[in-house]
Amino acid sequence: NSAEPGVASLLSQSAVQTAAAADERPRLLVVDDQRANIQALFQVFQADYKVSMATSGEQALALCRSQPPDLVLLDVVMPGMDGFEVCRQLKADDATKDIPVIFVTGHNDEEAETRGLDVGGADFISKPINPRIVRARVKTQLTMKRQSDLLRQWVYIDGLTRVCNRRCFDEHLASEWDRAARLGAPLSVGLVDVDLFKRYNDHYGHPAGDECLRRVAAVMTASLKRPTDMVARYGGEEFGLLLPDTDAAGALHLAGQIREGLRLAQIDHVESSVGPLLTISVGLCTWTPSVAGSAEALLAAADAQLYLAKSRGRDQACG
Ligand code: GH3
Ligand code: MG
Ligand code: MG
Ligand code: MG
């Protein structure tokens, strides 16, 4: 599947990769008040999974929040908080709601099974467990989880350049705006537009144009310094930069680095009126968020600076 490396590189680029641990086996949390039951499941899974255990609902919730597992095998009847309540609370919390829960219980009646699915359980297995069946069901749930995680990632990735897309940029901009407002920190945004790109397509052809956009995206990505900096394809031949905790001088510096990186990449553009190489124009704006402003207005101000850069002859950053 050619989709996966792209997702992987985006994950590491934006530093959200959490699977960096040396032990890459899927992590299971087994929850049961009876040690013998835990032991039975441990035997089934210890070879292929990293198994941790909890002997109460309260302990299970705490573990799911501190070290989220890939899947929970959850007993129903326990003293204190029962399995249904544990599952309900897991599903009510954004941080844990996507962890699949499989109930493992001796109460294999219709009522219990329906209730388990109602509170968000993914599957229901009865005790005494059959090792082959429980293994197969866990595997199925983990495959489905992996697929939905991948799909979720792809919703935020631009298919051509593999950088973040506009949806991703807009959502991050909104949250960074709120964060910067809370902290009284400066927030910079940039809009980067390829100069005379219509002529590039007309001369080199649309597939070459696509490849060119990939190279521009790669140069921009390579120029970012901080894990919180972000580049996104905002649309067409236009890219967005989101630079938290960055003042105007820092943003201008980064724009210079990107333009220098592009110059070193030496992408021919013989039809450009600026010179023989591909160039970009950059509009920058830095604000310290306040109630008077908005993320949209900040972006509009950067767009006005981009327009200025174009009108002053392109191949420059204004801000
Ligand atoms: P300016 O310097 O004023 O920005 O001129 P420009 O030619 O870059 O601007 P214009 O908006 O007229 O043209 C943008 C071009 O970008 C036109 C469009 O076909 C091309 N483009 C947009 N998206 C893609 C894409 O995904 N692939 C390719 N190859 N071209 C694209
Ligand atoms: Mg029990
Ligand atoms: Mg444009
Ligand atoms: Mg352009």
TrEMBL record:
InterPro entries: CheY-like_superfamily, Diguanylate_Cyclase, GGDEF_dom, Nucleotide_cyclase, Rev_trsase/Diguanyl_cyclase, Sig_transdc_resp-reg_receiver
UniProt cross-references to SUPFAM superfamilies, sorted A to Z: CheY-like, Nucleotide cyclase
An annotated GO cellular component: plasma membrane
Enzyme kind, highest EC tier: transferase
GO BP term (any one): negative regulation of bacterial-type flagellum-dependent cell motility
Highest rank taxon of the organism: Bacteria
Domain GGDEF stretches: 185-319
Residue stretches making up the Response regulatory domain: 27-142
Name the UniProt record assigns to this protein: diguanylate cyclase
Species annotation: Rubrivivax rivuli
